[in-house]
């Protein structure tokens, strides 16, 4: 098992979804994401969600989340509510890619 610098096991899971929003679907996508993020925030083991907006006209958005352990994420993903919860988002997205990886090191920037 890999460890962080402090010697504790590296258990956190990071999940990154790259989604291509259909033309003209940005507001519908944002509305659907807003409903989903509130629900996911209450899931045991969920730590943080981030939504990244493209800085160009690619319509390629990024949703990233962190989980206490991979088991927390997979329990949620395989649960009965997961597919129904994400269904409204799928209307606004025509391509997705998912990456999942274990956090083995973190570097936090210096605070002024």
From TrEMBL:
PROSITE patterns: ABM. Residues 13-101 form the ABM domain. InterPro entries: ABM_dom, Dimeric_a/b-barrel. It comes from the Bacteria. Gene3D superfamilies: 3.30.70.100. This is ABM domain-containing protein. It comes from Streptomyces inusitatus. The lineage of its organism: Bacteria, Bacillati, Actinomycetota, Actinomycetes, Kitasatosporales.
